[in-house]
Amino acid sequence: MSRITIDRSVHEAPSGDRLIDVIRRAGVELPAMCHHPQLGPIQTCDACMVEVDGELEFLVWMRLLDLDGDSLLDEAEWNRYRAARKSARGMWAFRLGGAGDVTETNSVWHQEKGVPQRPSPLLYRDVVYLVNDGGIVTAYDPATGRVLSQARLRDAVDAYYASPVAADGKIYLVSELGKVAVLAADGTLSVLAVNDLDDVSYATPAIAGGRLYVRTRSTLYCFGLR
Fold this sequence. Notes:
Blueprint: E1 2-6, E2 9-13, H1 19-25, E3 47-52, E4 55-60, H2 62-65, H3 75-86, E5 91-94, E6 107-111, E7 122-124, E8 127-131, E9 136-140, E10 147-152, E11 165-167, E12 170-174, E13 179-184, E14 191-196, E15 206-208, E16 211-215, E17 220-223
Antiparallel strand pairs: 1-2, 3-4, 5-6, 7-8, 8-9, 9-10, 11-12, 12-13, 13-14, 15-16, 16-17
């Protein structure tokens, strides 16, 4: 059994229970923005609304903001969060060379919109590909930062944790619910195929020896020509 504190009240729950189910059994009303019965007991529900000095903020991954682990956000933790929100973020392209702080002198371009928190960028055949956490895919010109195309993937609209990979003139993306999208590697985001593995996946695919390896919660798949 696990002990969980909800609004300062301690509740017991069997190990493996979904957090959202424990909260509902406790009689606490919680909007289920990200709940899906297929996801299992993972931490997709660490989100809350916090009001400080009349300012209402939506916080995701509150566990990461609670630095001292007391299940509360104190003034120092809140100020750190606000400072992080105000800091510059996004994706930068820099010229190589220089010394010291070259943020201003060597910056070529900077993009903020559509930049993911989890999946890494992919540079393939002179195009930069990004898929953000919400499933928006963007293709950039790496020399100028110009957006070549941007879209949600047909038949694969989902959240994405895994980074895109590429081989044989194709881009491969795996969504949280196991939809494997194959795109033409020409910057147009043309969908060639979508295959549904019907299982949760967070791992970035691996390519080796002419084969594509995809890991889901229950299975390791190997795809290749016979």
